[in-house]
Amino acid sequence: MWGFFKGDKKGKDERPADSSTEALTSTDVETQEVQPEAPAGTIEGSAGRAQAPAGTGQASAKTPEAPAKTGWVGRLKAGLTATREKFGNQVSSLLGRAGRIDEELYEELETLLLSADVGVASTEYLINETRKRVAKERIDDPARLKEVLKEALLSIVEPVSHPLELGMQRPYVLLVAGVNGCGKTTSIGKLAKFFQSQGKSVMLAAADTFRAAAVEQLRTWGERNNVQVIGQQGGDPAAVVFDALQSAQAKGIDVLIADTAGRLPTQLHLMEELRKVKRVISRAMPDAPHEVMLVLDAYTGQNALAQVKAFDDALGLTGLTVTKLDGTARGGTIVAIAKYNPIAVRFIGVGEGIDDLRPFNARDYVDALFD
Ligand SMILES: Nc1nc2c(ncn2[C@@H]2O[C@H](COP(=O)(O)OP(=O)(O)OP(=O)(O)O)[C@@H](O)[C@H]2O)c(=O)[nH]1
Ligand SMILES: [Mg+2]
Question: To test the ligand 1 pocket, which listed residue (1, 2, 13) has its Cβ within 8 A of the most ligand atoms?
Fold first, then answer.
């Protein structure tokens, strides 16, 4: 279902800096409100508009309301298979064949942690914690180190395991940012469905106005799921979001999610454009945006740390969504991020299907890394 979300990125980074005024009113912009053409649940009827990818996505497209065939923990484990094979299974086999706990064992553990993209600081912390526990509890059986390691990992990720809780604000405004192709639009589609399933009304603001395909990508999703999409290609992203916010306020919408164009932190004018979007939202609704979410592609590995810092400096992040944990052995990236900059990890994505994005749970994640 999500394959159609991918659009042409050509020329995206060649955008000129936006110079339009920040003093916006709804009449300054000619944004289009896209009323859903199809009622909720008529997904097959419009399936001709886009190609569904192989795998779970297609199944989800046909039966988005149907309960997942496997539970979330099963999906999570399946999604983290590559990481588990590279890390958890290898740790288990290392500990299984080690005769004793010695320096060689610590070194091998260290290598495994680093190769799973857990990061240097976390690796150092985990090895130190393990050493301390071994000394304190006089552990001499290497097999016991697995539990020790799991607990130490948990102590890193538990503090960032804070699910997103919608407040009383109406609309609750969620601004989504990230580098090109990290999974913003796809995640927004999944999130809209997630909030809808909680009985919330959702509106989307397509503030990636540079590419026609980007607006269309969100619009297609909106049409299929009875979600209003406000957007216009070529417009000012801040103006689109402003207009969407006014519309959401007028209609009493519960959640407004703003999609933005992918950008690299080094593209300073585009980072400034994002800051402007945030400022304009705040002017229209003083406590908004209520959530500033960075989407990170787990495949990015350690570069994710630099992305977190840059976007946090620019926007003041309140949450993260880590996508594409499936298909990469870099599932340890979450640990690296949690240690480096403990911003709440709200959601994780383990596939392209609509049910493949869920709230992050530290314990489930650590279990899935090993078992
Ligand atoms: N396997 C997998 N693919 C994903 C996941 N999340 C997103 N994708 C895919 O990643 C690709 C990019 O997703 P988009 O949502 O278009 O990314 P984006 O950040 O909006 O991209 P730009 O707007 O171009 O910056 C698409 O093919 C998605 O289907 C995930 O959790 N797992
Ligand atoms: Mg996008």
Answer: 2
